[in-house]
Write a structure and sequence with these properties.
single chain; 238 residues; alpha/beta; Rossmann fold; 5-stranded parallel beta sheet; 7 helices; 5 strands; 34% helix; globular
């Protein structure tokens, strides 16, 4: 019988690749997304359209409002950096405790589904320096999951947090996704898109994405206001 897996799914490049990997490993993916008051809520539109196409058995969208907490350019009235971020510093686009919250919801749904595998598309190489994207965090959450759940206490099985992208460059992630048939034209990565959903091309997420496609030798299929992978703006395709 095919095993179930809960996959954290934002509609972005990494989470889409992560779900494709879960499928390739023989899991039935149950996608979970979050409407948390993020300024780039267009990602949810992409996620709702893309999840069934990528093979999600079910897609749960959890709605809560992290704007009440604030503390991030993605959830508060703060500017999204457009000139790069300071190396070694945690940028203002970090959302306090976001992956801890997301994984907790995923763990709860996994308990109900009888699933013991949770996939998350965090990356610790080509990333913005968020503390909840590191291997130490993933290992710590897995340990907590097996302390805080009925199945973990009763010993019927162990929860496993899979982070298959964690030691891959963005270019490697893109190549792997293409091998698995991922259509990156269905994904969204920008932190500060236009009202029409066009990527800005200058925020850190866009920069990392464009850098990855350039290093992979593949054209990024989505539309941008401007492309700034190497610090040079140019008009994007319409």
């Amino acid at each position: 019988m095919t095993e179930k897996a809960v996959v954290l799914y934002s509609g972005g490049l990494d989470s889409t690749t992560c779900m494709a990997i879960a499928r390739s490993e023989g899991f039935d993916p149950f996608a979970i997304s979050f409407a948390y008051g993020q300024r780039h809520a267009v990602e949810l539109q992409k996620a709702r359209k893309s999840a069934p196409r990528i093979g999600a058995v079910d897609h749960l969208v959890v709605d809560f409002d992290l704007r009440r907490v604030g503390g991030s350019a993605l959830t508060a009235d703060l500017e999204v950096p457009k000139e790069g971020v300071v190396e070694g510093a945690i940028p203002v686009t970090y959302v306090p405790a976001r992956n801890t919250i997301f994984l907790s919801f995923a763990l709860g749904w996994a308990e109900v589904l009888g699933a013991f595998d949770i996939f998350i598309g965090v990356n610790a190489l080509d990333y913005s320096g968020y503390p909840d994207c590191r291997p130490e965090f993933i290992a710590a959450f897995e340990g907590m999951a097996n302390l805080a759940t009925r199945a973990g206490v009763e010993g019927s099985d162990r929860y496993r947090i899979h982070a298959p992208l964690i030691d891959m460059t963005k270019a490697q992630i893109i190549r792997r996704g293409l091998e698995l048939g991922v259509d990156y034209g269905l994904t969204h990565s920008c932190y500060d898109p236009t009202p029409e959903g066009r990527a800005c091309g200058r925020c850190d997420s866009c920069r990392l994405r464009l850098k990855g496609f350039a290093e992979a030798g593949v054209e990024d299929p989505i539309a941008y206001v401007a492309r700034d992978a190497n610090g040079t703006n140019r008009t994007a395709k319409r």
